[in-house]
Design a protein that fits this description.
48% strand
Length: 128
């Protein structure tokens, strides 16, 4: 059983930065593709970005966050990070990390269904 725990959310002004972390336990983290999703009130959960387990960790970001958000992972710490810069009001949401334990090499799913384990979420609120 894999457990994921997010941290680092909070209240930040527009234009500011936050770094979210997601610590995994109970599995073989280095073999999991990791994804970040978010869900704003009244909206569906959406893909933010992901990082593969294969190679040096290829990443994929949603168009809405390209150039502002960066995903990285530290396999020694079983942790994945989401660095968020130039935050906008529309980035306000509950952010989740998720683990895809069966991902093929160099593949990142952009929908929620392939992900097997989810964290509880951490709230990010961007104010004007």
């Amino acid at each position: 059983q894999v457990q994921l725990v997010e941290a680092g959310g909070g209240l930040v002004q527009a234009g500011g930065s936050l770094r979210l972390s997601c610590a995994a336990s109970g599995g073989t983290f280095r073999r999991y593709t990791m994804g970040w999703f978010r869900q704003a009130p009244g909206k569906e959960r959406e893909f933010v970005g992901g990082i593969t387990w294969s190679g040096s960790g290829s990443t994929l970001n949603a168009d809405s966050v390209k150039g502002r958000f960066t995903i990285s992972r530290d396999n020694a710490k079983s942790t994945v990070y989401l660095q968020m810069n130039a935050l906008k009001l529309e980035d306000t949401a509950l952010y989740y990390c998720a683990a895809d334990v069966d991902a093929r090499p160099f593949t990142i799913a952009t929908t929620a269904a392939p992900y097997d384990y989810w964290g509880q979420g951490t709230q990010v609120t961007v104010s004007s």
